[in-house]
């Protein structure tokens, strides 16, 4: 199996910063792309940022210039540094990884971590 453990969500004032972490463990051959999604109340889950095995990144337009995704392959961990946070960033943030396991690539999700930005 594959387990994802997220951490770092919190309540923060607008303009503040948070760093989310997602550690991947279990039985797998390799981790492919890693990413962060978020879901605000009453809204659909949306992609926030994604990073490939080669380090290529893409971001939602709403977070460009404020958020930075990175990964530590030795630790099987992906990070999301969030700066200049806004109230509209309030959501549950989910880690997503694509993993090669038993000859197949498959997506796995974390349990979610709450980020609340007060105005």
Largest sheet: 7 strands, mixed
CA-based gyration radius: 14 Å
Number of helices: 0
Oligomer: single chain
Q: How many beta strands in the DSSP annotation?
A: 11
Structural class: mainly beta
Strand content: over 45%
Gap between N and C termini, in Å?
Answer: 40 Å
Overall pLDDT: 97
Uncertain ranges = none
User: Topology as H/E string?
Assistant: EEEEEEEEEEE
Structural shape = elongated
Helix proportion:
under 10%
Write the layout of secondary structure elements.
Elements: E1 2-7, E2 11-13, E3 18-26, E4 30-39, E5 46-51, E6 57-59, E7 67-72, E8 77-82, E9 91-101, E10 104-109, E11 113-118
Parallel strand pairs: 2-11
Antiparallel strand pairs: 1-3, 3-8, 4-5, 4-9, 5-6, 7-8, 9-10, 9-11
Describe this structure in words.
- It is built from no helices and eleven strands.
- The chain is elongated, with a radius of gyration of 14 Å.
- With 119 residues, it is mainly beta.
- The mean pLDDT is 97.
- Strands 2, 4, 5, 6, 9, 10 and 11 form a seven-stranded mixed beta sheet that branches.
Summarize the structure.
The protein is mainly beta.
Can you tag this structure with a few keywords?
119 residues; mainly beta; seven-stranded mixed sheet; four-stranded antiparallel sheet; 11 strands
């Amino acid at each position: 199996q594959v387990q994802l453990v997220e951490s770092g969500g919190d309540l923060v004032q607008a303009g503040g910063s948070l760093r989310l972490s997602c550690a991947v463990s279990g039985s797998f051959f390799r981790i492919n792309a890693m990413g962060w999604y978020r879901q605000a109340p009453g809204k659909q889950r949306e992609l926030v940022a994604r990073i490939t095995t080669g380090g290529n990144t893409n971001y939602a337009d709403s977070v460009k210039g404020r958020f930075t995704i990175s990964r530590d392959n030795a630790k099987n961990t992906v990070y999301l540094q969030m700066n200049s946070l806004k109230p509209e960033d309030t959501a549950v943030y989910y880690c997503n990884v694509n993993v090669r396991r038993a000859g197949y690539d498959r997506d796995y999700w974390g349990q979610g971590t709450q980020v609340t930005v007060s105005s």
